[in-house]
Input
Amino acid sequence: MSSERRNIELPYRLMDLSPSARIIVSYLQFESMINGRPYVTFNDIVENTGLSQRAVRGALSELKAKGVVETILDVSRGRRYLYRLIPSNISIIEEQVESGVYLVDVGVGVPSMMSFRVYRTIRASAIVYYTSHVPKSFLEYTKCTCASLPLEGTRPDQVVFIASKVTSSGGSISIVYDQLLDWELVDPYINAIKESGVKAIRPLSSVSPLILGIQLLMSKSDETLSFRRGNLGIRILRVNPGVEPSNLNRGLLFKVFEIRRINE
Output
């Protein structure tokens, strides 16, 4: 592959772009964050945005000139051009994040499955506490300029003190953790925050193994999904792949996914 790059000193605001360019930026962001596809084709953009080919060409020219979109020539597929959003060159997330303490469950811990709200909240946080089960790539993906501190080794009263100071001034903090693995660790902190009188404790979650398991269970494929985080292997498999369950609750009961420790 060959690539053309431009250096942009300051990021553009989303609202500074033309309407067609804003639509394409939102689509590229969706493909990258939700579907895990950093590169898309011209036809992908046309088919999924509803814009005409002429509008897409004009918008892509604008975005390339401003350094918001990178063009890749993929010679392995018939010299086809691919397009990728450069997040550092545009301020996409502009919505106000309400003051509070956010409990952010990383779910499967894959950045491409991070929800927009989780992405926005982490970026807006003054301080992010994280557990050892949170993949570094998950936080690095947000390019958050906040202070990132390990939760382990931090006393609950210290977190309460920081939460009180930040929220009283209209800011927010996030505790990023894995709900499957860290609940016993995080629970004392949550209780301490509640007892302190700090209001607005807001739970958030990315795509969880349970959600993936439900989707897999209700699909017609016999696909098995597996991924690894640290010394933990998580495998998601369908129940009776050849037979659709007649009772959803019974089918889900303790069978949606299994977790096993990997000895290293």
